[in-house]
Specification:
The protein has helices at residues 3-33, 35-46, 50-53, and strands at 62-70, 79-85, 90-95, 100-104, 110-117, 122-127, 132-137, 142-147, 154-156, 162-164, 175-181, 186-191, 197-202, 214-215, 228-232, 237-242, 247-251, 257-262, 277-282, 288-292, 296-302. It is of the alpha+beta class. The longest helix is centred in the first third of the chain and has 31 residues, at 3-33. The termini are far apart. Mean pLDDT is 83; it is low at 20-34 and 306-313.
Length: 313
Amino acid sequence: MSNWIVRLVRLRLRWLIAFLLLGLSAALVANYRHWDDRLYFWFQELQVGAAEQQQHIWLPGYQAVLQGKPLQGLEQEEVSGLTYSADSNTLFIVTGKSPQLIELTLDGQVLRRIDLHGFANPEGVEMLADGRLAIIDERMRTLTTFKLEALTRSLEFAELPSLDLGFADAGNKGFEGIAWDSRNNRVLLGKERGPLGLFSLPFPGEDGATGVMQPMGGGHLFLRDISSLTYDARTGHSLVLSDESRLLLEVDEYGEPVSFISLARGMNGLRGGIEQAEGVTMDAQGNIYIVSEPNLLYVLHKEPAAASPTLAD
């Protein structure tokens, strides 16, 4: 065999190996980012009719109406968690650098700041029944509950009832999401990762005691992490926020995916992507609020007619 034929064969072999490696790399990236799952689910969304959409939150119908508004005075903080209080028609967030519980107007004006003494790393906050609030401390692996009075300006962890959530070896990959399921009188919890998962906790049980935390069955969530949760009593569905996937996912009461939107630039009216999304909640009208680090607020509003589903990075 002549030298030029040998060189040609070697060149083609190198190109074939390079092509195979490129294809393998693309497949690994797609699997890591769950692009294949998003594509499959996007096609499933296309089959959902208008009547069925009305039974869901149906995220593809939402558009951003407030984008990246800075929360004044919180520039140096790391905002996390988000909940809506129907009694006061306000929002609550928690901060991590200097632990605080902060009450906001619906357009992001700071109303009051409450120091959280003894807390290490508050990541989630949720309005429960009977005017109680709950805070999840990821580092301490605790769920702490309390009633907030109008004049409260500080809270002491040691003076509040707390529940150990377990997963002692979770480190900084513990529980971040919390939502109150008012239909079933239970707390829904989202574990960030390692492993990622949704859990339910009957709360309270008989004599004020909690029940046993159970993993929710659910399907494949195609998320890389869970940053926050919120619950919609109108539909019985929940929203799951993922920072790393830049995704907001609707799941049913069993944790099965129902609809989703990307939080990337250009999707659902977003002029810029939502970076480091850390908290999500809904108000009584179904508006969706999202906070992202370090101190930005976003609001999404449901359009009268559902828009087409979105697929993006």
